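Weekly structure sync, notes
Attendees: PL (lead), two postdocs, one rotation student
Agenda item 3: pending single-chain targets
PL asked that the sequence for the first pending target be pasted directly into the notes so everyone works from the same version. It is reproduced below exactly as submitted, 254 residues in total.
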Amino acid sequence: MLGIFVSIRRLALLVLVLLTGPVVAVAGGLARVDGDWRTASRESAGIAPDPALVTEPIVQVYGARAFGWRGAFAVHTWVAVKRANASSFKTYEVIGWRYWHNGSPLSVREGPPDRKWFGAVPEIYVDLRGPEIESLIDKVEAAVKAYPFMDTYQTWPGPNSNTFTASIARAAPELGLDLPPTAIGKDYLGITRFVASSPSGTGFQVSVLGVLGFMVGLEEGLEVNVLGLSFGLDPLGLAIKLPGIGRLGAERSP
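Predicted structure, written out during the meeting:
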């Protein structure tokens, strides 16, 4: 009986630790759990350059707090590309409602890549430009076509939008993408794969179904994943990583 009591106490303590970050995120205004998705803003945040003025090829990666209660825990991420002299960006992302309605979660659209995610202002994680980026766009678009979970979607622990973005990053390590700890689903590798490179391509990770594992990389530092929520330390970036809250420390430019 004492052993059961101790086990329950430890489980309760673990749950409390895991939920502290999301509660702080809501209390601190980092995430909103209310609102109506039908009226939430999808306007450009004014981050992306105007294709009419910037003709060079560009690759960008964005993320914004998920809508509703999910935003207390996670961000939604997407990838955008613009080829040389193209008149618009092309944005690739995976969306749950598209899967539930159409059987495929992939969304491909043209237009501003920095649209608010139902009211949430996006952050930019990667912004690469120049003539050499044209070949990187080829790799990104090949990775989109090769995405292994094109016919399935699961909010938690994945595959979801962050699984998609992480998959592209692993296939195109030139992105150097360090996804935030709030990108729940980035650690999902599938039901038969347990080891992979880290999304930035600067390290490796071990993950069991996206709910338990760890990651080590020059960009990511050290991350530990428990039930899809990540704790971490980034010594080179002078930062800590917490569930719900995200990255705390020195600012990193994309």
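Discussion points:
- DSSP finds four helices and twelve strands in the chain.
- The chain has a mean pLDDT of 92.
Action: rotation student to compare against the earlier draft before next sync.
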